Amino acid sequence: MMRYLLLIFFSVMLTLVGCGEKSKQNSDTSQEIVAKTIVSNSEENSKVKFPVYNFDSFEPMLHLEDDTTYIVNFWATWCKPCIEELPYFEKVNTEFKDNNVKVVLVSLDMPSMWKSRLEPFVEKKGLQSEVVILDDPKQNTWIPKVSEEWGGGIPATLIYNKDKRLFYEKGFTYEELTNELNQFIN
């Protein structure tokens, strides 16, 4: 009985210590923060080809106020509707580049999938849009910061510029995506 109580005690203590948050004052501009790749010390992260962000380091990318219209698509390699719409985001990234449109593909794949699935997928598909990895287990905290409308499902897309912001929790056809984008660039 005493062993079980000690085991429970240490489990609770480890959980409490692991749940503590550390805040850090950062004086970098949002552009500098976006330019940094936030990678943890784990071996998995150190070998991955794409920038790995926690939400705090990624969030400035959702609030840039320059002359660009951003299409930020949240997806994963295991999500069939996400995979089906990726060619449309790639086409928009290419065709609307002269209109100051930038597509950012935010992978929500699990860390164990980054090397084995995400990297080969991006390479095989020849994705040219910027691919980043969002690795933050506190979804209940960061999802509403992306959009209060987001229920957490993917695919999900945020289209914004300095004047307008729209969020979609759905898959797109090319026509739907360009129609929505035209609200920002026309």
From TrEMBL:
Keyword Isomerase on this protein?
yes
* Gene Ontology molecular functions: antioxidant activity; isomerase activity; oxidoreductase activity
InterPro entries given in the database record? AhpC/TSA, Thioredoxin-like_sf, Thioredoxin_domain, Thioredoxin_ResA/DsbE_sf
Q: Where is the Thioredoxin domain?
A: 24-186
**Alphabetically ordered keywords of this record:** Isomerase
- Record-annotated membrane-spanning stretches: none
Name of the protein this chain belongs to:
Thiol-disulfide isomerase/thioredoxin
Supply the source organism's classification.
Bacteria, Pseudomonadati, Bacteroidota, Flavobacteriia, Flavobacteriales
